[in-house]
Amino acid sequence: MNEPLDWAAGAAATLGNLGFTLLNSDHPAAPAGSQLLVALRDQPTLRHFDPERLVAWVAAADRGRPITVDRATTAGERTILWGHVHVVDRLPVENRFLTFGGSLRIADIDPDLRVVRHDSPGPIVRWGGHSQGLDDLAGEIGAFFGRLIVPVDFVPGAEARLAAEPPGHLYAAFIRDAQARRHGLVQGGSASLDAWLRAEHARILRDHPGWWEVGGTLLDAIGLGREGSGSMH
User: Which value, in Å, is the radius of gyration of the alpha carbons in the chain?
Assistant: First the structure.
């Protein structure tokens, strides 16, 4: 069996009684990495949340634009950008996620079932919705994405720069920015978040040192360098 069928069969097995699931949400270093799996079925099961489409962002002419993946979308693989991912059912209600971007794979198992898998080098976190709450990291990641919107709107070339960067670079920029902003926090700080940030910082320096340096350059280029330049090593 070739690799595309391997991943699709594995996703279908995981989604046997589910409409969607999130794996290794805040553990991107896990062997399988962070993954969002979605089942698009020909008929709703009425036993769980039954997705009919997924909405994410892709790069087009140096800008981000939303795309919809449903049962009519051409199967295959594409790259999605940082930001929101919405998994929507027929009613329509939705469950929302935040991602640093990465690959999006689409495959048909049989005439009744299509599976979608999103992989990212950073966390993929729950951001509320119909049948889920918020992950602990959602606030930090959402705030970082909110800060990115400012240069996208006001700094020439920032949107194109962010769209062109690999997701790992943006993730490293987030770790730098979050650590710098939390530096010296005592009252009101989260020890568990600080420990997680330190662990991911150390892992990136060990396994992907280039990400760390490029992440700092990226923050400088879009005007967030002063905040993101702390906690270098």
Answer: 18
Q: How far is CA 83 from CA 59, 138, 152, 185, 186, in A?
A: 12, 11, 13, 27, 30
pTM of the model: 0.91
Using the structure block, give the residue that is written with the tokens 């553990």.
27
How many Å apart are CA 105 and CA 79, to the nearest integer?
Answer: 9
The Cα 174–Cα 212 span in angstroms is 10
Which residues partner with 64 through β-bridges? 59
Q: 160-171 in b/e burial notation, b at 16+ Cβ within 10 A?
A: ebbbebbbbbbb
Domain span including residue 105: 3-129
- 233 domain-assigned: no
Q: Quick one: pLDDT at residue 226?
A: 57
